[in-house]
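Hello,

I think I submitted the FE3-S4 cluster job twice by accident. Can you confirm which output corresponds to this input? Input:
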Amino acid sequence: MLIPKIDPDKCIGDAVCVAICPDVFEMGEDGKAHVINPNGCDLCDCEEAADACPTEAITLEEA
Ligand code: F3S
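Support: Only one job matched these inputs. Its output is below.
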């Protein structure tokens, strides 16, 4: 299983991750994405979200 993490120093609030995986990522009031369901990658395609992020802020770790 893959566990997604977001580097807040890299995130620029592009939000494509939320568009691809709304069950896993959510935009915070700080304008950055946050992981709301780290176990949710089986519900969507977190690898696509990580590839689509323009700043490579998303990393996926095998758990
Ligand atoms: Fe941030 Fe990348 Fe998502 S810039 S909002 S982690 S697509």
